[in-house]
């Protein structure tokens, strides 16, 4: 059995996921597609090539690419102050350890958002951040009727965790970038992404909302309990299939393996005429200083952070993923991943729909299988 197919079967048979699929290209040609299990356990519908999935944080990579497009059009630049586009970010405060607020000493820029060095957290940061976000989001009312700009205004009313540029922190930076794109272009985020990427690349099943055809092929989002039991996620984390909702730069896209492969191959090919090679190089280069790198995630080892992507700097420290230096990509909260390894001409897109994702166990096994498959071809 093909190593990647064996991996897919193993994670289904051991009950780690309801279903999963993987698509692998090398040097622009498909070398593997496989799937296993079911996209919905209740109906028995199989996980298939055209299964629609919630991509969650893989949306961030698309938002980064969209921002780079605006760089190329001289609408934005890395040092553009966010307040020049979104005036509500002109006077940001920093939350001090004693709970007091003080004015930020550094001006927030587009570079800070792209590199997650803005100081903008997710709402699950330490207290009292969650309460502050809860109050602001509650004031928005029905999130299903909320616009990207309204959402971003609410974020601006919450404090930063540190002065922009001081450290790295995973948070709502990409979502603020979504608001920047809306304000800078005069287009809704989904419309700009469709015009710039989805339509030119033929990504017909990708967007922030689903038509009837896509909804009929959508995978159920499962929650994995502590005992390993899979059950449909009660609230689907606010990402219902039949609801309009805020178009967020950091999450929210639905897509399929083939659609996201088209996007990833565009990146691997240096922009493929949609973006410039220089933009792709900028995206995949580590952008963090030594000080900022010290606050980047400890694992997996050997990686830095580019423009909303993890990028492999030190191959000698990377026994976990079997990637080459210069590889880049990102994961989604429900276990999806994109991984681009230019040195090997390799692009991998993997799909599953489970939270918590257990990606730190599942994805290394995927990449070991992919490496075994490539070795067997040569």
From TrEMBL:
InterPro entries to which the protein is assigned, alphabetical: Beta-lactam-related, Beta-lactam/transpept-like, Diverse_Enzym_Activities
Domain of life: Bacteria
SUPFAM superfamilies: beta-lactamase/transpeptidase-like (SSF56601)
Beta-lactamase-related domain mapped to chain residues: 7-368
Pfam families assigned: Beta-lactamase (PF00144)
Organism annotation: Candidatus Alectryocaccomicrobium excrementavium
Record Gene3D superfamilies: DD-peptidase/beta-lactamase superfamily (3.40.710.10)
Protein name, UniProt field: Beta-lactamase family protein
PANTHER family per record: BETA-LACTAMASE FAMILY PROTEIN (AFU_ORTHOLOGUE AFUA_5G07500) (PTHR43283:SF3), BETA-LACTAMASE-RELATED (PTHR43283)
Residues forming coiled coils: none
């Amino acid at each position: 059995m093909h190593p990647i197919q064996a991996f897919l079967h193993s994670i289904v048979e051991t009950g780690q996921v309801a279903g999963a699929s993987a698509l692998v290209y090398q040097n622009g040609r498909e070398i593997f597609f496989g799937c296993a299990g079911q996209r919905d356990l209740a109906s028995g519908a199989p996980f298939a090539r055209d299964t629609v999935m919630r991509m969650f944080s893989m949306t961030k990579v698309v938002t980064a690419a969209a921002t780079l497009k605006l760089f190329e059009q001289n609408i934005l630049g890395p040092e553009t102050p966010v307040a020049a586009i979104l005036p509500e970010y002109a006077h940001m405060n920093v939350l001090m350890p004693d709970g007091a607020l003080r004015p930020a000493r550094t001006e927030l820029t587009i570079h800070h958002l792209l590199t997650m060095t803005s100081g903008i957290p997710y709402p699950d940061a330490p207290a009292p951040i969650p309460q502050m976000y809860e109050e602001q989001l509650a004031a928005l009312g029905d999130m299903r009727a909320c616009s990207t700009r309204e959402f971003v205004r609410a974020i601006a009313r919450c404090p930063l965790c540190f002065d922009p540029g001081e450290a790295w922190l995973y948070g709502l930076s990409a979502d603020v970038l979504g608001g920047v794109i809306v304000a800078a272009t005069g287009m809704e985020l989904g419309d700009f992404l469709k015009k710039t990427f989805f339509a030119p690349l033929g990504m017909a099943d990708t967007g922030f909302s689903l038509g009837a055809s896509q909804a009929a092929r959508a995978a159920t989002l499962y929650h994995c309990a502590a005992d390993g039991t899979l059950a449909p996620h009660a609230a689907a984390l606010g990402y219902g299939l039949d609801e309009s909702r805020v178009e967020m730069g950091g999450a929210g896209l639905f897509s399929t393996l083939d659609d996201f492969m088209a996007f990833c191959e565009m990146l691997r090919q240096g922009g493929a005429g949609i973006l410039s090679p220089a933009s792709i190089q900028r995206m995949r280069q580590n952008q963090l200083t030594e000080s900022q790198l010290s606050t980047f995630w400890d694992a997996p080892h050997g990686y830095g952070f580019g423009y909303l992507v993890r990028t492999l700097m030190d191959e000698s420290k990377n026994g976990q993923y079997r990637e080459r230096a210069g590889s880049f990509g990102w994961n989604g909260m429900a276990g999806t991943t994109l991984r681009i390894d230019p040195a090997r001409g390799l692009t991998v897109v993997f799909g599953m729909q489970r939270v918590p994702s257990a990606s730190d166990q599942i994805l290394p096994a995927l990449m070991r299988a992919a490496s075994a498959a490539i070795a067997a071809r040569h």
